[in-house]
Design brief:
With 291 residues, the protein is mainly alpha-helical. 69% of the residues lie in helices and 0% in strands. It is built from 11 helices and no strands. The chain crosses the membrane at residues 74-94, 106-125, 132-152, 172-194, 201-223, 235-257.
């Protein structure tokens, strides 16, 4: 009587025994998938992570970055579709003007909505810097758009008692109040500028030009507050300068968006953004190096 050979037993278990070799094959397959996922999670270099998420790579709890898509381009689209036309309005190109009043809907539903949504999603992923930046500018676009909407009637509070509501826009109180908004947005951009030195050159240029734009707009509206008629020419030049700085910011932002989208679809080539995360070492990295 012959006994079943080992190869025959192996084949039998592989075909019909769920607790035999077939189970091990499935286990090996799952192990391969896990190894692939692990490799995929570390394949992104710190430079690429910073380029896609606009924040230095840090360990966070959970694994949401592999579960959800990158929300950064969503916020960038909202930022650019709102800022680019506004910068052209401020410079008065092709007769545009009015502080971007014709684009108030885009400020609210493109700039405000997309940036705030992107900021919340960055928060979910644990990207604090990008979350703060996007939510901040989302709130700014919501607020600026509301200021321009007739239904909010913001200038009426400053209008003379015997004059139309629109007359309030020419008063000292209205223009000085608006100037203070731009002033402290410029201060906030300075803080973001310092923090962006840990990200990339493109982000630095964005905050630098945006900071200059807000400070120039502050000067322009302060000039209008001082003498609306007498300083109209001076204020106009400052506002045009603010629009030009905002336009530089917008063009830099379009470059950054293009660079991100090329990486998102794994295009054969990419655009450099001038990574700075490896040049300016973080405090935790310095402490780890000492230890």
């Amino acid at each position: 009587m012959t006994h079943p050979s080992t190869p025959e037993k192996t084949m039998e278990q592989g075909n019909g025994n769920p607790n035999g070799i077939a189970y091990n094959h499935e286990e090996d397959r799952q192990g391969d998938l896990d190894r692939f996922r692990t490799a995929g999670s570390v394949a992104m270099s710190p430079e690429l992570f910073e380029k896609l998420y606009l924040t230095p790579l840090k360990n966070v709890h959970g694994d949401l970055r592999k579960t959800f898509a990158n929300p950064t381009p969503i916020a960038l689209v909202g930022f650019l579709i709102a800022l680019t036309p506004l910068s052209c309005d401020l410079m008065g190109w092709a007769g545009a003007g009015g502080g971007g009043a014709a684009s108030s809907g885009f400020f609210v539903f493109m700039g405000g909505l997309l940036m705030f949504t992107g900021g919340v999603l960055e928060w979910v992923l644990g990207n604090t810097f990008a979350s703060v930046v996007f939510c901040t500018f989302g709130g700014f676009y919501f607020s600026y758009g509301a200021t321009l909407l007739p239904s909010f009637n913001t200038s009426a509070a400053y209008a003379p008692a015997d004059g139309p509501a629109s007359a309030g826009a020419a008063t000292q109180g209205f223009n000085a109040s608006l100037a203070f908004v731009f002033l402290f947005m410029g201060v906030l951009c300075f803080i973001f500028l310092v923090c962006s030195l840990r990200t990339n050159v493109v982000f630095v240029v964005i905050f630098l030009s945006l900071m200059l734009a807000f400070f120039l707009l502050t000067g322009g509206y302060m000039a209008l507050a001082s003498d609306f008629t007498g300083n109209a020419d001076k204020a106009g030049k400052l506002i045009i300068g603010g629009g030009a700085s905002a336009f530089v910011c917008a063009m830099t932002g379009w470059y950054l968006l293009t660079a991100q989208m090329l990486d998102v679809v794994d295009f054969p080539f990419g655009l450099p953004v001038g990574d700075l995360s490896g040049i300016i070492k973080g405090r935790s990295e310095r402490a780890a190096a000492k230890n």
